[in-house]
Each structure stands twice: as structure tokens, then as C-alpha cells.
Amino acid sequence: MGVSHHHRVLDLDDSQHAYTPFLSLTQRESEATTTKPSSVLNQLGTFNGVYVPCLLNIIGVILFLRLGWAIGQAGVLGMLTIFFFAELQAVLTVLSASAIASNGAMRGGGSYYLISRSLGPEFGGAIGVQFYLLYASGVAMYLVGFAEEVAQTWFVDSAWGKKWVVVTVASTTLVTIVCIALIGAHAFSKVNQYLFVVQFACIAYGAVRGNTCTLVVFRLFTVSQIVICVSTTRALESGGHVTGPQSSTLAANMHANYTDELHVCGDSACDLGAVYAIVFPLATGFMEGLNLSGDLKHPGIYIKFDCFLIGKSIPVGSLAAVVTACVIYISLIFLFGASFDGVALRTNFSFFQQVGPTPYIIITGILVSCYTSGLGALFGASRILQAIARDNLFYGFGCLGQGSAHGDEPQYAVAFTALLSFVFIFIGDLDVLAPICTSFFCVAYAAVNFTSLVLQVTGVPNFRPTFRYSCWPLSLAGVVLNLSVMIYLNAMYAAVTLVIVTALFVYLYLVGPETSWGNVSQALIYHQVRKYLLRLDTRKGHLKFWRPAILFVPPTSHAPSVALCNRLKKGGLYIVGDIVLGEFGPSILCILSPTVGPV
Fold this sequence. Notes:
Layout (H helix, E strand, L loop, with lengths): L2 E7 L15 H10 L11 H13 L2 H5 L1 H35 L8 H10 L1 H34 L7 H22 L1 H25 L4 E6 L5 E6 L3 E2 L5 E2 L4 H6 L19 H8 L8 H4 L11 E3 L2 E3 L2 H27 L2 H6 L11 H32 L20 H15 L4 H29 L13 H18 L1 H21 L8 H15 L14 E4 L6 H10 L4 E9 L2 H9 L7
Parallel strand pairs: 8-9
Antiparallel strand pairs: 1-9, 2-3, 4-5, 6-7
Helix pairs in contact: 2-12, 2-14, 4-10, 4-12, 4-16, 4-17, 5-6, 5-14, 5-16, 6-7, 6-14, 6-15, 6-16, 6-18, 7-14, 7-15, 8-14, 14-15, 16-17, 16-18, 17-18
Pfam family, one: AA_permease
GO molecular function: potassium:chloride symporter activity
Organism: Aphanomyces astaci (Crayfish plague agent)
């Protein structure tokens, strides 16, 4: 015969008595496998499900239409500085996202799913909406870039005016990518393959026709190929000169020369912050693979094989895409700086097209790149919206969570996202859309790093990532860097973005539905309480600050005694206990019963 003691800490002044634990690995696996039992899920791999979509978005419209301009403004050194901090933001965020993604089984929703299941519905829902908005606005940004290239190539003297040509072309292009998105992820993968063939044909044509010039080719797997034909020094049609790779040209373009002949920066002259805000999207897109988590065969788990860890889709594909993009961008920064004079870089957006045997080679590459980036952003946005709608966090959006019978394709979410992107397209200016996207990107990336930081600092037992290359100092650096960059680039956009996040958080806190996901705030409270309890030293206590600590074992259902002791505790520790007589094994079931105890 043994005695088992059952007790609980009680403070009747508190309204919260329940602690909901984090989802365990088995719970996550169960949730992931039972989300859509009637549908056949896609099984994309690391290459076509993460690496290719990420690189499609990283190598996008900013590279073709604004990279040269940014080099002309900030200089090669300034652009390398911008690129260093932008890629540092990317790498830190990828490490944090990989750690969270490798903690267990995942379902669709990508970054929103990770944050909401870790930090709770309020914070997860608020940041999820930010992620959705940044991708919805990103669709518009890429398609406006597509339309700008079409307008300055074929509709220079249109009676409609440049803005309405851009809006019309971008809207028409949006319809085509919506059709592909409605078909599904497999159509997306096949389109990438066909576009690769188109790009390869452009390269072959340039190689055959460009035998009188130096041909530099950067071949990106199924993404984009950039052909630059540089001959002897000659004037460009729209201003400036191409010199070919020369050390003197590189030296002349090494330092900043801020002007604003093209009125890109508004009414004032450009500076480092304005250039950073416009070109920052060139370092984004690495979260696209995470957004397709529901379509991946192995999203984020590492599998141990003998003495090696075989990395799975999200960590390996995302990091590989970032490294590939770094090599490409650094090479292009030096190549542009050494091959074009400052006038061409600062004042001629179409200098890239004017150096080849025919401008249509580069134009085709630009259009294909913008098109695939917009398509990838639409895929990511619709899947985030589908996940938010399925969680019923916002009233009236439940229908957007429906998916197709095959592949669970978010067709309703695609249609809704297309309508929202159409609104952004009416802005009609790439230089206005880019800073808006930058602000959304920074706060979203800060949230991913913050999630990883909280999980690591609190030491939640459930957080056991198989990806070992992330730690809390790196996550903290990611939070600080992303928020600092956002505020530095545009304080007004930063304030508006943070106000939106705060308003959504308050809304979900007040009227959001009850969920069983768990909330990291409980882990934070436990971590802080334990830390300060361990710092208590009874030897340093003083009579004036003494508080009672009561252990009360009341008779069954004796509520008045419980209330009396609650008054006596005076803010001290109050423990209500119960004694269960019997053997420990059988008695444990009684202890765990919710009916045990006097309260």
C-alpha cells in the first residue's frame, strides 16, 4: 500500500487555469495526414519543389530592370554592401525556417503553418496575413515588371500612355498565370521545363549570332539564362556606352554617384536607403519552397543514413537556391560595373537589351523570368490563404480553404488572390510596388526568426529540430537585422506594416476561435517564472516582505475552506492537494482524472 500525492498550484484570482501543450510530433503527423483525406497530395522533390521555385523568384524582374540602375547609383561597392546585408537577412531566415521545418511533419501553409503552430493563432494569423499580402503584392510587382518591358519594347509611342499599357498587359498576363495555377502544381512544374527550352533556344541563337563579340552565359537550372554580348566600345541607343570588361570602367563605377534623372526615387535625389528599398526583392523568393510544403514529399525532416544526414527538401533546396543566387548576383555586379559606363547604368533601363546581336534575346529572358516569378508568387500566396482559411481564423473566409480532389489545389484561393493582385497592378509603377513588398518581406522574415528564437530560448521539449545549423544568437540577429532594415529603408511603411500586424493580433486575440495548437506564451511564462524562482534566496528575505505559502488538503467538496485559504495567502503561493490511497500504478489513472480534487 502506498500513498500518491496529487496537487496543483491554484490562484483563484487568475482566470486561466489550463495549459495547452505544444503539438507533439505524432500529433503533427496525424494532423498532416488527416487534413485532406479524400485528396491525392502532390509529391514534389527537392529540385522541382524547392530549388527551382525559389530560384525562379530570386532571379526576377529586379535583376533585369533595376540592378544596373542600382550599380550606377550606389556604385559597385555600395551595391555589394546592399547585397551583403540583403543576403545575410536571407541566410539567417533560411536557417531559422529550416530548424522549425525539420522539427516534425508539416502540412500545407508553409511559413504561416510554422508560426501559427509555434506561437499560437493570434501571432500566427497576423503574420500569416502579412506573408499573404507580400506574395499577393509580389505577383503584381513581377507582372508590372513584365508589362514595363513589353511597353518600352513595343508600345513606346502608344496613345494610351505608359501606365495604362502596363496595367493592361499586366492584367492580361495575370489571367494566363491564373489558368496555370488553377490546373495545379504539376502544370507549374511542366511550364518551368518548357520555359527552360525557350531560354536554351535563346542562348543557342545568341551563341550562333554573337560570334563577333564576347559571350557570357550564366545558366540557371530551369530558371533563366542571361546572355550578354559585349563588343568594343560603342554608344547605346538610349544613352551611355558599352565598353566591354575593362578595369578603367570598373574603377569609374566603383563608388556612388547618386542622381535621379529617371525620377525613380520620387522628388528627391536617391540615396543608399532608397536604392536598397527598390532592389531588396532581388534577395527574396527563398521562402517559395516553404510555401509549397503541402506539395512536397519530404518537406523538412532529415533522415539519418549510416554516418550521414541526408537533408530533405526545404533546408537543402532553399540554401542551395540562395548560394546559387549569390554567385550569380556577385558576378553580374562586377560584370555590369566593368562593362557599362555610369551614364548607361543610371539613365538607361534598357541597356541590357541593347548589347546583344538582337534585343529580343534578352527581352525573352526578361519576360520569361518575370512570368515565372509571378507564377511562383501566386502559387505561394494561394497556399498560405488556403491554410489560413482552413483554420477559420477570420469569419467568412472558410470557403477559400477548399481544395481540388486531386492535389488539393487551392482553386478558390487562387481566384481571390488574383483579384487582390489585380488591385495592386493598378498602381502600375515598379518603383512604388518594390518598397511596399520590401516592408512586408522584412516583417515576415523577422517573424520567422522570432519564432525560432522563442522556441530555442524557452527550451520547449517538443522543439527538437534535426537541422542543427541554427541557434538562438543567429535567430536573434535575424530579428534585429530585419526590423532595423525595415525601419531604415522607410519608416512610414514600417510603421504602417507594424500597425497592421498589431491590429490583426488584437482582433484575433479578442474574437479569434479557440484552437488546440498550443501557445508559446505559456512556455515563456514558465521559463521566466522558473528563472526568477531559482533566484529567490530565503536568507535575504525580510519580515516586511514575507508572504505565506499554504499547502491545503481540504475535505471533499469543502469550498468555504478553499476560499478562506485563498484569502489568507495574500499573494503568496497556494497549493491545494489531495491524497489518493492505493498502489501507484492503478492510482495514476485516478490522479489524471479531471474529477479528482476538491476544486
